[in-house]
């Protein structure tokens, strides 16, 4: 059988193949060539979502001028380190020259009129320069004023070395270095007067954060009567005294009491207040 006879006798196969080819072409076009095809539904939805997000992003960019600035977080906070607590001395202004032993309102006025506006300015002057300034203003009137320590005091204030300044002032007599006995610190008295520092009667155990009148009585009955004695008492012994007094005292936490008592005994009121500001009823 030649090829012509084959096609004449098997024409229906040819028709079938043509029909199948047509169907295959139509299906492929429907599947891949038409965006309305079933396989393109997800793609179409994705394009719509993408277009929607682009519009929102454009709107956000156009409105950034109305977004408030975000301040950077201190590195200590980012690192998870406890933030620093402010010192009560931070409330002092650097132009307050009256914290210097030997300088009163009138002398502060004279110094500021002479260009000495703050602690840094005063620290930069030598005692000889200050002496000359006072003599120039009124040599006879201010002859008894001794500015020898003013620069050193001002430098301690400028460096925020408050405990050292207080200790130094306790050796002075109106700014002079010839005090016979320990004197009051002008800075300390000023801070107490302003309510920025607390000062207690010597060996008052209630100065310790966490100790009230009742616990003070327990400690006194246990022969712990001074700050020095409390600072030398082991925490476990204090806990034993509290537990022996009943359940009502079991919540008291004496962990920091010896440390606080040591600061009080040494007159380190600034450090004591900073520590107490971090405590809650004596607890860390």
Report on the structure:
- With 284 residues, the protein is an all-alpha fold.
- Among the domains are: 88-193; 205-277, no CATH class.
- The protein has 15 helices and no strands.
- The termini are far apart.
Features:
single chain, 284 residues, mainly alpha, 52% helix, 0% strand
Please state the CA-atom Rg, rounded to the nearest Å: 42 Å
Largest sheet features: none
Helix content class: 40-55%
Q: Give the termini separation.
A: 108 Å
Number of helices: 15
Tell how many strands the DSSP assignment holds: 0
- Overall morphology: elongated
Mean pLDDT: 77
Strand coverage percent: under 5%
Order of helices and strands: HHHHHHHHHHHHHHH
Low-confidence stretches: 60-85
Q: Multimeric state of these chains? A: single chain
Helix/strand layout:
Blueprint: H1 3-9, H2 11-33, H3 41-62, H4 75-78, H5 105-113, H6 119-123, H7 127-138, H8 150-158, H9 162-169, H10 186-193, H11 213-221, H12 227-231, H13 235-244, H14 257-265, H15 269-277
